[in-house]
Design goal:
Blueprint: E1 8-15, H1 17-21, E2 26-31, E3 38-44, E4 47-52, E5 62-64, E6 73-76, E7 82-84, E8 89-92, E9 94-98, E10 101-106, E11 112-118, E12 138-144, E13 147-152, E14 155-159, E15 173-174, H2 182-188, E16 191-193, H3 204-211, E17 219-222, H4 232-235, E18 242-245, E19 251-252, E20 257-263, E21 272-278, E22 281-285, E23 303-306, H5 326-351, E24 355-358, E25 363-364, H6 371-376, H7 382-392, E26 396-397, E27 405-407, H8 408-413, E28 421-422, H9 438-445, H10 458-466, E29 474-480, E30 492-496, E31 513-519, H11 520-529, H12 534-537, E32 542-547, H13 553-562, H14 570-577
Helix pairs in contact: 5-7, 9-11
Length: 578
């Protein structure tokens, strides 16, 4: 039996920021001067794809295809095989191979890394042939958002339980009403998988209720650079059985059931996806991954599920000034949502799962103060995606409703079986029409009057703790009320990240500038508890302007992912203030 080894990444080529900026549209031939190895990188606006410059047939070198007028294909010098690098499919001979892709990542200095996953297809280790499934043996029940309850023989597994409370401070709320027995379902689970640290997947309000009954329930997470449960101690939730597992290795649950966690190619430091296999039948859940496993995924799985909705970002709704008119934002959102739909439809067509389910996008900005976001942050319709998939393939699609159950054995045998998908009873409440804002806003509001903020020196203390500096960016931070007007008595200050100073006026040197208005309850809660700025940005709790209109990846990546794992020591700070 082939032994599984942990999946790792190897840097094959590193492009400097200048080299990355000078990449031309279309095909770029690249060489690692140290190793002498050659690579091809295809650029289409912001989309990048890369591979080794080596034909899959007999290892020949690719060169420019003079017969290609679209700038997408290369020709092998050995036998004239042709590869379309925009799709990584061989077009001569047609229908032969797909080229193995490399992962393209941006580094902290805006350079590019070409990475190779090893092994690239770890699920192929210890292969198992599918066995017949009895009716009812494998059942998948949708609870809400990204939460699925899987019955796999005599075991139960739950994905990403967000079933109560908000996500991202107070910006996201559940669109669907979870089944009334959701807590009992969680307590019955043999294991839980949590894909990443974002609070619509790692929901501490949900886990607090679960921990009250089953603190020792096994919860599995991937071995990400920033631990998924980095904030567990600070949260006060008493969970005692968190299991961190390596990427790309089968985790055996029983003789029929195993699962494997894979990293994301774009955000390997925090995002993961999962393959669950029962009696040889694979269930692929790519969750929120942008390029799960660097774009290499198993084909013809029994069931695939992925996000679809879009709208999980403060951009562009929370931006103003310059090009950010309402008309521009509306057109951008429309275009981006369509791109996402087309990408998901293309991915499903390429992978050819037997069944596809769009999920992990069922949230709503329901707090009254976020009415503008709710009206402008238009999300994709799962039925529109499923209709697009049906036009291009024979894949069966399932738009889930809370409490609906898919019987995998029945659906694989006969997708038209009326008992293959059991909908919730007639009259079941599908959409939430009220949310309990009070308890969660009370927690946020408690930070406003915290003793820390009586001392203006908290600003230096906080940003010193955050550890981001030596970067030419000046940010003006303004604490605001609900309507993003300056909060009476609130702080309004500048941070110069070049030398981590706090000037009264903008410096005279040339510098990029951002103005960030943040609701006072959320920004103070984030500062006090050392939380990541996703609560502000993804949670729509800011309004931003920038000059020039440039995305400062290093700044945002630091405050959204790389802040210290322990919060500021405010106790010591207050002692020194006395």
């Amino acid at each position: 039996m082939e032994q599984s080894i942990e999946q790792t990444t190897e840097i094959l080529l590193h492009l400097s920021p200048d080299e990355a900026a000078n990449l031309k549209e279309g095909i770029n031939f690249l060489r690692n001067k140290k190793t002498g190895k050659d690579y091809i990188l295809y650029k289409n606006k912001s989309r990048l794809r890369a591979c080794k410059n080596m034909c899959k047939h007999q290892g020949g070198l690719f060169i420019k295809d003079i017969e290609d007028f679209d700038g997408r294909s290369v020709r092998c010098t050995k036998h004239n095989w042709k590869l379309d690098v925009s799709s990584m499919k061989y077009i001569n001979p047609p229908g032969s191979f797909c080229q193995d892709e490399l992962v393209v990542e941006m580094d902290e200095g805006n350079g590019l890394l070409l990475l190779e996953l090893n092994p690239p297809n770890p699920w192929d280790s210890e292969p198992r042939s599918p066995e017949d499934l009895a009716y009812g043996e494998v059942q998948v029940t949708y609870l809400t958002h990204a939460c699925m309850d899987l019955k796999l023989g005599d075991k139960r597994m739950v994905f990403d339980p967000w079933l109560t409370g908000p996500a991202f401070a107070r910006g996201w709320w559940l669109l669907h009403e979870p089944p009334s027995d959701w807590l009992e379902r969680l307590c019955r689970a043999d294991l839980i998988y949590i894909s990443h640290m974002h609070s619509d997947h790692l929901s501490y309000p949900t886990l607090k209720k679960l921990a009250g009954r089953r603190p020792d329930i096994p919860i599995y997470v991937g071995n990400t650079e920033r631990p998924v449960f980095w904030n567990l101690n600070q949260s006060g939730v008493q969970l005692t059985n968190i299991k961190v597992v390596p990427f790309g290795i089968w985790q055996q649950v029983d003789k029929n059931l195993r699962f494997m966690i894979l990293m994301d190619g774009v955000h390997p430091e925090m995002d993961t996806c999962i393959i669950v296999e029962y009696k040889g039948h694979k269930i692929l859940n790519t969750v929120d991954c942008t390029r799960p496993n660097g774009g290499r995924l198993p084909g013809k799985v029994a069931l695939m599920m992925s996000d679809f909705a879009g709208g999980a970002s403060g951009f562009p709704m929370t931006f103003s000034g310059g090009k950010f008119t309402e008309e521009w934002k509306a057109q951008f959102i429309k275009t981006e949502r369509r791109k996402l739909l087309n990408y998901k439809a293309r991915l499903v067509k390429d992978l050819q799962p037997r069944i596809y389910c769009p999920f992990a996008g069922y949230f709503v900005e329901s707090h009254p103060s976020d009415k503008y976001i709710k009206e402008t942050n238009i999300k994709n319709d799962p039925n529109e995606l499923n209709n697009l998939i049906k036009k291009n393939s024979d894949v069966v699609t399932w738009t889930p409703r809370p409490g609906a159950t898919l019987d995998l054995g029945r659906m694989l045998k006969d997708p038209t079986d009326s008992k293959g998908i059991i909908e919730p009873p007639e009259g079941t409440k599908i959409y939430k029409d009220s949310w309990d804002f009070g308890p969660y806003l009370k927690i946020l509001n408690a930070s406003i009057e915290d003793e820390i903020f009586r001392h203006s020196s908290w600003i230096k203390e906080y940003y010193t703790w955050a550890g981001f500096k030596d970067y030419n960016l000046v940010v003006r931070m303004i604490e605001t009320d609900e309507d993003f007007s300056p909060f009476p008595g609130g702080y309004d200050y500048l941070v110069d990240f070049l030398d981590l100073s706090f000037p009264k006026e903008r410096p005279s040197r040339e510098h990029p500038y951002e103005e960030i208005r943040s609701r006072v309850d959320v920004i103070r809660h984030v500062v006090k508890n050392g939380l990541l700025w996703d609560d502000l940005y993804i949670g729509f709790q800011t309004r931003l302007q920038r000059d020039p209109d440039i995305y400062h990846h290093l700044f945002w990546n630091h405050f959204q992912i790389k802040l210290p794992l322990t919060p500021p020591n405010w106790k010591t700070f207050l002692v020194h203030c006395e």
